Amino acid sequence: xxxxxxxxxxxxxxVALRDKPPxxxxxxxxxxxxxxxxxxxxxxxxxxxxxxxxxxQSDPQSWxxxxxxxxxxxxxxxxxxxxxxxxxxxxxxxxxxxxxQTQAEHxxxxxxxxxxxxxxxxxxxxxxxxxxxxxxxxxxxxxxxxFALVEPSWFAQAALPDxxxxxxxxxxxxxxxxxxxxQDGNAPGFS
Length: 191
What we know:
Layout: H1 2-6, H2 22-27, E1 36-37, E2 43-44, H3 47-57, H4 68-93, H5 103-125, H6 135-150, H7 152-157, H8 161-171, H9 174-180
Antiparallel strand pairs: 1-2
Helix pairs in contact: 4-5, 4-6, 5-8
């Protein structure tokens, strides 16, 4: 999303992680995605690093904020998503692999750890840092989208109206549709 927002041209290659291409492993032996090799040969192997690099090239939607307090708060939300929510999201998505609890119990843990606080934040602010989206919104929403897709009918009626509004704005937006468009039937597009 940041690459598309910044209008940075990249070659997108879809990768099956069970069959990692040798070209990818040559530039990034750790073999995880995303990975971006820059024209100067540098390799970025983390989503946030790629986001900051892209937005450093061009930030037409002002996703980066200048105020240190904003940057700190944005980083707190992203860290909370990475460390608290994502592990619980995986347990919720793949509940059959974690039979010590029901899917509903895994869902409740994710709600308590992150989702309810995010809904409350969005009720008061519209986005993570205020009325306009920022880089942290773009970093967090894909994981909230995954959460919503586990049990769509449950999510549609859950007491999370502000979260649904925020998520809907992202997934119904032109930028998301551009990013998710298939150019050749295989890879998402960024043009």
